[in-house]
Amino acid sequence: MFDIMGMMGKVKEAQAKIKETQAKLVHLTSTGESGAGMVKVTVNGDRKVVSIEFDDSLLSPKDKEMLSDLIVAATNIAMTAIEVKIKAEMKAATEGMIPNIPGMDLGGMFG
């Protein structure tokens, strides 16, 4: 028989674990590189850019457009990488707590 009280307890436990894990995500970082490492962008688990580094050779006014393109590319790489880490952290935090119900996708709960 379906245990609704047990299920509610699991949901509350999962919510607490998710909140705790989300608070830790700010310390999670990913760095994306472009231009063979000439531009590096680091983002955190809060999906915020925390640093941008670039090679001094890119400071020439004639390379302004290329620098912009490299920063965008490195940022997109870092954002993609942090999403993977965030999902892995959230999955690990709730593993075994939320039952696998066919047709119920809880992936959107994690950010």
UniProtKB/TrEMBL annotation:
Alphabetical keyword list: Coiled coil, Cytoplasm, DNA-binding
Gene Ontology terms, MF aspect: DNA binding
CC per GO annotation: bacterial nucleoid; cytosol
Statement: the UniProt record of this protein carries the keyword Cytoplasm: yes
Superkingdom of origin organism: Bacteria
Location, primary (coarse class): cytoplasm
Coiled-coil ranges from the UniProt annotation: 4-31
Localisation: Cytoplasm, Nucleoid
Subunit-level organization: Homodimer.
Protein role: Binds to DNA and alters its conformation. May be involved in regulation of gene expression, nucleoid organization and DNA protection.
Entry-linked HAMAP family: DNA_YbaB_EbfC (MF_00274)
The protein's name in its UniProt record: Nucleoid-associated protein SAMN04489724_3121
Organism from which the protein derives: Algoriphagus locisalis
